[in-house]
Amino acid sequence: MLEIDVLTIFPELFGPFLDTAFVGMARRDGAARIDTHDLRGWATDRHRSVDDTPYGGGPGMVMTPEPLVPAIEALAGPKGPDRKVHVICLSPQGRPLDQARLVALAAAPALLFVCGRYEGIDQRVLDLAVDEELSIGDYVLSGGEIPTMVAIEGLVRLLPGVLGNPDSIETESFRGGGVLEGPQYTRPPVYRGLEVPPVLRSGNHAAIEAWRREQALNRTRARRPELLDAAPESRSDAGIEETKRPLGDPTHPKRD
Ligand code: SAM
Prior knowledge:
It contains ten helices and nine strands. The protein is α/β, with parallel strands linked by helices.
């Protein structure tokens, strides 16, 4: 069972999300335990403060080490090699979250997500108590709650037994050779003059497989050609020239 805790000043944002669809099912079936915790429960003043004005001036407020560090340590233990819980802070400055990172995190025994608000979190919290910062994209939201839900939803569907048909994970975007999935169709066979490609109704599984592969590569080449750089076997299929750029893992750039 994957154990997930979430530290936030808005636990109420998670209500229906945690009870609905695959996330709700995973919790009910015991594939995941997910609990939210109100950071203000660790505040020590009578206003239950979690933020203060930034040193050096500037707009907005910054989340203070008190009560964040004690709260993280209460839920995950002190940072260090013996800590069993991997502590993640959602931040636009973090490593871009991708499918490969979700797969790795889904194998962890326990995760704590820390949701920032205001102008962000005092750097000492990140230095003293957080293992990893993750971003859901190059844009700025007002808080880490929705980014945390994004990560949880992506994680939970990877847990054994959660998806009815685990094959769907293997064929969907970013998994099947690291490319986008191609177009999909269901009934009716003709809708407003647009026909489902006949090969999909042919019953010829090899032809269907080849068509899907070709469509996936065409779509990836048109929309996200950089993904083909990371999938060498796909690159040659797609007629993409070898580039001089070293392969490595472009979605996980080395960070200092
Ligand atoms: N001042 C920060 C900056 O310029 O990088 C932005 C702070 S943002 C207004 C407040 C919080 O929202 C962050 O601490 C983070 O938890 C969350 N957040 C906003 N955008 C995010 C993103 N793209 N990915 C992950 N978390 C994000």
